[in-house]
Amino acid sequence: MFKATLTIAWITCVTQAWIVPRPQNRHSTQLQVAAKIGRGVQRVKDSLTSAERSREDLKIGIAGFYDRSTKLWEEVWGDHLHHGYYVPADRTDHKQAQIDMIDEVLKWAGVDQATRVVDVGCGIGGSSRHIARKFPGCQTEGITLSPYQAGRGNELAAEQGLADQCRFQVADALDMPFADDSFDLIWSLESGEHMPDKKQFINELFRVCEPGGRIIVVTWCHRDLEPGETSLTKSEEKLLRKINRAYYLPQWCSVKDYVDLMEAQGATDVKRDDWSYIIAPFWKAVIKSSLNLKSVIGLLRSGFSTQRGAYAMFLMLRGYKKGLIKFGCLTCTKPLSKKTEKTESPSVDKDSEVL
Ligand SMILES: C[S@@+](CC[C@H](N)C(=O)[O-])C[C@H]1O[C@@H](n2cnc3c(N)ncnc32)[C@H](O)[C@@H]1O
């Protein structure tokens, strides 16, 4: 009898442990699969309607997008993930055009020396390493949302003998892991367009810049609004929404909006320019570079978001052609003190449009 009770108890335990939970596991697996399908359907719907992403989705999306696409980009284009400087317009040395972009921006901003530089949205650190070589002894810190990029940036710095000058880490530009007044040069080349809060972005750039330090922001903007206009046209907004889905971008702003944000920080020497005509040949060159077997195979391998990014190159071209997208260059100096911020008015550079 006792033996029979024990046997029943044992069977009950085993049944509870192995048989009873099974339907629950199956049920939860079914629920997980259903949730996954639901999320997939929602993503397709959002893509078709070019829905705006939440801040959190955007951050995760940016990291994933660059984690997946950077290797292919580096194989075809090298270590700079930005437009080239096309003067003369018919130049075909594209990699050199990208390096020239850095030199020309520094020249335009009047920077001929730097000792501590932060590269905000650094990609795989092409700008940091170039600046480190240009200004010997200079220390650079690069931040990106993509773990792949931060790792690759450090790897390339070590390979190129720059590990003691250049460091890269995963961090958010809207909440940088640096103390106030840490750098004399703030460098942001084509990352501002990813920032969902432009005011917070500019605040952070000013916070980590030392008083009297220089801030450089080169970024995709939409055209300035005309007097009397309160927004872009519906078709312009539609085009930008499609680009946003592909490149993980939030709402755009104009160069004038950036100038206003810098001036609100008491910036001096505010200077702006539109280099859309200088970078004009770039997207055609990128499209052409992708028309070879190696790139096509790489593209097929790197998944949907990279393929959608490739398609969006045509949308970028259209945006530039329409005068909707601007390649905006901005630079300014952080005021020496709060007092300077209130009493000094921005100085004027005669060669550029200054507001
Ligand atoms: C087009 S790439 C430009 C990379 C680099 N500046 C260059 O010119 O090679 C944009 C970069 O911005 C970074 N980024 C976007 N949003 C960011 C954020 N909130 N914080 C830090 N980096 C960000 C991305 O991770 C990526 O490295």
TrEMBL record:
GO terms for biological process: methylation. It is an enzyme of class 2 (transferase). Its EC number is 2.1.1.95. It holds the Pfam family Methyltransf_11. Residues 117-126 are annotated as: SAM motif I. Keywords: Methyltransferase, S-adenosyl-L-methionine, Signal, Transferase. PROSITE patterns: SAM_GTMT (PS51581). Residues 1-17 form the signal peptide. Residues 118-217 form the Methyltransferase type domain. Residues 181-189 are annotated as: SAM motif II. Residues 208-217 are annotated as: SAM motif III. SUPFAM superfamilies: S-adenosyl-L-methionine-dependent methyltransferases (SSF53335). The keyword Nucleotide-binding does not apply. GO terms for molecular function: S-adenosylmethionine-dependent methyltransferase activity; tocopherol C-methyltransferase activity. CDD domains: AdoMet_MTases. Belongs to the class I-like SAM-binding methyltransferase superfamily. gTMT family. This is Tocopherol O-methyltransferase.
